[in-house]
Structure formats: structure tokens, C-alpha cells
Amino acid sequence: MIVADLPAARLRERLRAGGLRLRTGPVVSCIRSPLEDVAAGVALHYARHPVVDEGTFADFHVSVERPASLRRWWRPQVVFRFDGDAPFAPLAGDQGFPMLEWGLNWCVSVHCHDYLIVHAAAVARGEHAVVMPAPSGSGKSTLCAALVYGGGWRLMSDELALFDRSSGCLHSLARPVSLKNGSIDALSRFAPSARMGQVVHETVKGSVTHVQPPEDAVSAVDRPAHARWIVMPQYRAGCRAELRPLPRAQAFMRLVGNAFNYHVHAALGFELIADVVSAAQCFEFVYSDLEQACRVFDRLHDSS
Amino acid sequence: MRWRVPSRPGSIRWRRWDEDVAVRVESTGGTHLLGPAAGCAFTVLLGAPSGMDLRQLADTMLDGAEPGDLERLDAMLLELHRLGVIEQVPA
């Protein structure tokens, strides 16, 4: 069963009561929320994701709800809970779905130590993936969205690249792509068919929204890929899209610097990232125009 | 004073790409990128399990030391030592 198979009322009932057990690649999350914007977000963005039985083990038990304080009467807030605890301060009341997404990212990044996790977008064609490590604000999610909604690449993740500890291959999450501020309009113009959720304003990141993961990404979520290219993206207004070779040692250090749990994996993490870098071509990439960017990635793929 | 790369199994992990060397020091958990000169010194010391002193290392690395070279190499060795990448050979 997938989320879209659940009638709207049944979906909301599950979210309010025992929780909706949602599979996103290797992760099962049990999500509870009484909030309508969270239910609407789940219905849109996870429409094609599998719902698993209530008895299935869930890696994470999370909820997004109103905090039990008097503030809720005159200034509603939302709080994310993990196993009943609230690891983050509450946010304004209309930020329920973004908070769920940020919370789920946090769950994966600090708990899924079966993987070496890098703060990176990852897209694939067939068995070959591009991994794009970068800090927030570099334009990696925008580029990732353009590549998957208009560039013929398959979404693996826009935030978390999961490297298998033993094989080094990449696993997919195929969760919604997060966009903010100017990138929302940019993607709307570039890929009008991309299905976006409600835009939420005045978050800590500015205006944010999420884009529904494409169907091919969800159906191929269990298909791993190998990092064929490591690309460090950087949006730079007005510049031509250009790939520049990056020395492998520098790419290695950038991957280490963007890894959430490199320290957990110790020597294995070093060897894993070194193997990934040794087997990949490494580049820096500057871009401003999304069509140009997609053409450069086409050529990159075709040249290998 | 003689220097060497720690020889205990697993104490140092390293990879070389072109002239750059990345090392991981088990005792600190630190990962460091060595530039060409430090990478060269590290590689030379790897091949000398009993260690080398400053002069021996300079003779191996440099085709004739110029004024200031020994001081720079000495400072680099002290920095590598501080990072745990190399150690002093016990007397």
C-alpha cells in the first residue's frame, strides 16, 4: 500500500492516532500529527511512498504537534518530538510540514550509523550517481531539483547522501526536495510540472517549500548507485555554468567536512571516503542558469 | 632528534593523490591534508622505519638545501608532530 491508497480521512486518522508508518528507502518512520498542514504535506509529498503495517519496526517515532502551553491560544506554535522528546525549540504554527522534514533529516543524520552520511545532494542515472556535497545556501538543492525535474536524473536525496559502510554504494531516500527563497520561483519557471507544496514564509531559512519527489525516484528507491562524480556546486548569480577539475585530496577533505558521522566510523570512514574519491571524478561547479547547468551535467554523463 | 611515522598497526591511515596526502591519526581521530612538501616528508619517513634526523631528511628531500630550508623543514616536522602524524624515535 502507498500513501495515495489511503482515503484522506483514513490518512488523518492514522496520523492522529497510532501513527503513519512510512518507508523512505531504508528508513521507516512512524509519524504522528493532528495538524492539517502536516497531513496535507504528507499526502502530497509522500503520495507514492509505501505505508507499512502497524506492527512493522519503525526506526523513528516522531510527531509534530502544538506544544501544551498557553501560547497556543494567541500565537500557535509547532513542536517536533522524537521518542517524546523535543530536540528543537518550537516554531511558528504554520511551519508544521517543514519542521517534520527538518526533524526527519535530523533523525537520519544523527542515528543512521549503518551508513556514512554526508550533507550532500545525490542524483543518479542508472547505476552512476553524482554526489554534491555543500553547506546550506550553496544552491545544491536547487540544482538537484533542476536535474531531477528537468535534467533526466533520478533523485536519491537533496540533503543526505547515504554511503553503505561495507560496499561504499549510495542508498536513496527519495524524500521531498527542500527549496527556499529565490529558488522556489526559479524552479517553478524551469520545471512547471514539479509539484510544490505550500510556501511557508518567515522561517529561519526565509520562505521555504518542498517539491514532491518524482515517481521514478520513489519506485527506484531501493536501487543503489555508485558515486561516479563528486561535484561541489556553488550558485553564483550571472555566471556561466562551468565544471572545473578538483584535486581528489581536496574533494576528500570536502566530503569529510560535510559528513555528519565521519567521527563515528573512525578508520572505516577514512577508508570509505578515500575509496569513493579514488573511484570518482571530482569537480567544482559554478552555475546560475538551470538549463545551462543541466546541459553541463548531460555532457558530464555522456563523456564517461 | 629523529622522526618517524608511528608504526603501530592502524595508528596512521593515509592516501596519496598526486602530490597531496590525506592522513588520519588514530590517537586523535584527526584527519589532515598534507600539502606537497609535508606529503613528501611523510612519504620519505614512511620508508624509514627507524627514523631520520633533520639533516638526513633534508638530504633526501632536497637537492641541496638553501638558506632557511632546514628551519622551514624543522618547523614543518614540529607541526606534523603536533598533529600526531609523526613521532620522535625513542632514544
Can you give a write-up of this model?
The complex is a heterodimer of chains A (304) and B (91). Chain A has 304 residues and is an alpha+beta fold. Chain A is 35% helix and 29% strand. In chain A, strands 6, 7, 8, 9, 10, 14, 15 and 16 form an 8-stranded mixed β-sheet that branches. In chain A, strands 1-2-3-4-5 form a 5-stranded mixed β-sheet. In chain A, strands 11-13-12 form a 3-stranded antiparallel β-sheet. In chain B, a hairpin with a 5-residue loop joins strand 3 and strand 4. The model of chain B has no long low-confidence stretch (mean pLDDT 93). Chain B is of the alpha+beta class. Chain B has one domain. In chain B, the strands form 2 sheets. In chain B, strands 5-1-6 form a 3-stranded antiparallel β-sheet. The interface between A and B is medium-sized, with 16 and 13 residues.
Approximately what portion of the residues of chain B adopt beta-strand conformation? 25-35%
Residues in helix, % of chain A:
25-40%
Number of domains of chain B: 1
CA-based shape of chain A: globular
Mean of residue pLDDT of chain B? 93
Number of domains of chain A: 2
Shape of chain B: globular
Major sheet of chain B: order of its strands?
A: 5-1-6
Low-confidence stretches of chain A: none
Count of DSSP strands of chain A: 16
Instruction: State the distance separating the first and last CA atoms of chain B.
Output: 9 Å
Q: Helical percent range of chain B? A: 25-40%
Strand content of chain A: 25-35%
